[in-house]
Design a protein that fits this description.
The protein is of the alpha+beta class and about 280 residues long. Strands 12-7-8-9-14-5-2-16 form an eight-stranded antiparallel beta sheet, with no helix packed on it. A four-stranded antiparallel beta sheet has the order 6-13-10-11, with no helix packed on it. A three-stranded antiparallel beta sheet has the order 1-17-15, with no helix packed on it. The chain is globular and about 55 Å long.
Length: about 280
């Protein structure tokens, strides 16, 4: 049944549909926009009491609502390494023999995930990974998990399959096939990467320093000679519609918290790993 329900994703015009979503979610249609937002809130049971602008009338477009900010007090920051997003932990563990677990029966290569860049994949060969799935109701801004310096960013074009659990169980190499933005950081405790994975109906991925990145046709690499220093909890960017973040840690001085396990929900700011 999973295979049947996901097979249509191979034939639909993924990028065309995502471009339509990008345009549609930015339309300012007044009462129609507010009606759609209210239906979405009701269907997904979105908690608007924690939004910095809790009233639907404050949002001129659906994308403004979807990428809403939160009240500063609702996501206190823990110590060590925090979750960069509100999400479900889809997979969490160690990178073994250069591979990551996607779902039961499916794994994929670290080098493929990192766009074939062996210099970067060498940093994480014996490291840790965590796959964080953002559902439609989640807060969709992405934050920095540990004080760090951004050194490189790579955009890798690709497909736009859904990234939900059902699709992950069926489509091989899902996260290494989809469009993604790879952010490489230096930290006091070793290298870190955040991979922002695109998906069907994700209009664009956005960072604070580049703005929106909309479905480029080829790989693009930004190397920052003057590294960008980021503090724990700083906003890094956002998904314009939902997707997945994969965190990689390359240090042996870090371990995942034992209580943070697969299928558990976590909030941005909650502790995800500890420093040894």
């Amino acid at each position: 049944m999973d295979k049947l329900l996901t097979s249509i994703q191979y034939i639909i015009p993924q990028h065309f549909l995502s471009k339509l979503v990008l345009k549609f979610t930015r339309l300012k249609l007044g009462g129609i926009t507010h009606w759609l937002i209210k239906r979405f809130i009701k269907y997904y049971n979105v908690d608007m009491s924690i939004a910095s602008l809790p009233e639907v009338s404050n949002y001129a477009s659906f994308n403004q609502f979807f990428t809403r900010s939160l009240k500063p007090t609702v996501r206190p920051l823990a110590t060590d390494i925090i979750s960069p997003v509100d999400a479900e932990i889809s997979q969490i563990g160690e990178i073994e023999a250069g591979t990551l677990l996607q779902a039961k029966g499916h794994s994929f290569k670290l080098t493929d995930l990192l766009g074939g860049n062996t210099d970067f994949s060498d940093l994480f060969q014996q490291g840790l990974f965590c796959t964080l799935y953002l559902s439609p109701k989640d807060y969709h801004r992405i934050h920095v998990p540990i004080t760090s310096e951004l050194t490189d960013m790579i955009y890798v074009p690709g497909r736009l399959f859904s990234v939900n659990q059902r699709t992950a169980r069926v489509i091989p190499n899902l996260f290494a096939r989809n469009e993604r933005l790879i952010c490489i950081f230096k930290t006091e405790f070793g290298p870190m990467a955040l991979i922002l994975v695109g998906a069907i109906f994700v209009g664009s991925i956005e960072t604070k320093w580049t703005g929106e990145i909309n479905h480029l046709s080829q790989i693009k690499h930004w190397h920052y000679k003057e590294t960008k220093h980021l503090q724990l909890g700083d906003e890094l960017g956002r998904f314009n519609m939902g997707s997945t973040v994969i965190m990689l840690l390359g240090s042996k001085r870090i371990e995942w918290l034992s209580e943070q396990c697969k299928t558990k929900n976590i909030l941005m700011g909650q502790q995800l790993a500890r420093l040894l």
